[in-house]
């Protein structure tokens, strides 16, 4: 059992999605040691997704890990180190600074013997969050809160609102934030641009004043350029123009998010925006989609696991299916907005009556 004052280190040198998927575990670790601390070493290009999380005391980019760990050895040690990964150097760093190391069982039995607990991986496929939660459970920590976590700062939210307002394409109707591409090594997860075009045609037919903002890195520019040129004045691209956190703030301010299986989709899963997520048959949503999350529709590739290969195209998911999911999620947002406005109106009436009584 983790002591209430335990000093803990988590090492997560991974992609955006894998980093976000670890946040329920990090939250559970810190909750188990309210008088202790939790430092996190993360990939320097993905560490931004953990910024502002209240259960992390210090973030350290892995690029500076060696110097930081040398300083730690001179000043203090950790009681526990949790390693999310399989690289031997990560375990070497953990053994150097922590009294107890917890990680998944490795092929090297000598390494396993050095661990405080070598956690068995599941014998069959398990949701990614539940698999990572095994590390916490190995330290005697149970948690029923499996929600992903990401924080958008007030400054980032304000900047996103200003960016959207500055777009010539911005209209008063609902706003979709869309991540159309994954990354090159897993491009088979991309939904074809012609399918997105068909989706947008349906959107604009139902909501002529709707708008779409496309997000992604510089590699998504070709796809986003085509879509923005196909729908001038209605679809705008922020791909390659905004940082990861700036793009996340755009997602947080949208009325609905639509995305393929990629980093921004995991981030959207940690936000409150209604969302529609598309998953390839090699990476099923039932193992990756955010848990305990309202206003979510998961669209799975229709191919069976036996049929599925990296050559299985995502165009098997038709635009009509995605459109109906988007329409339902926009309706959810509209009802929520009406509820807020209704509550404000009722409060205004209440305040007016109270003011009259005071006068």
CATH superfamily of the largest domain: Glycogen Phosphorylase B
Low-confidence stretches: 353-359
Q: Please state the average pLDDT score.
A: 90
CATH class label of the largest domain: Alpha Beta
CATH topology of the largest domain: Rossmann fold
CATH architecture of the largest domain: 3-Layer(aba) Sandwich
* Helix/sheet category: alpha/beta
Q: Encode the helix/strand succession as letters.
A: EHHEEHEHEHEHHEHEHEHEHEHEH
Number of strands: 12
Give the arrangement of secondary structure elements.
Layout: E1 7-12, H1 16-21, H2 23-32, E2 37-42, E3 58-61, H3 65-75, E4 78-83, H4 88-97, E5 98-104, H5 109-114, E6 117-119, H6 128-138, H7 154-166, E7 175-179, H8 193-206, E8 211-214, H9 221-230, E9 235-237, H10 244-252, E10 256-260, H11 263-268, E11 275-279, H12 285-288, E12 296-300, H13 319-358
Parallel strand pairs: 1-2, 1-4, 2-3, 4-5, 5-6, 7-8, 7-10, 8-9, 10-11, 11-12
Structural summary, described in words:
There is one protein chain. The chain has 13 helices and twelve strands. It has 359 residues and is of the alpha/beta class. The protein folds into two domains: 7-138, Glycogen Phosphorylase B (Rossmann fold, 3-Layer(aba) Sandwich); 154-343, Glycogen Phosphorylase B (Rossmann fold). The strands form two sheets. A six-stranded parallel β-sheet has the order 3-2-1-4-5-6, sandwiched between helices. It has a six-stranded parallel β-sheet with strand order 9-8-7-10-11-12. Helix 9 (221-230) links the parallel strand 8 (211-214) and strand 9 (235-237). Helix 8 crosses helix 13 (319-358). 42% of the residues are buried. Residues 353-359 have low confidence and may be disordered.
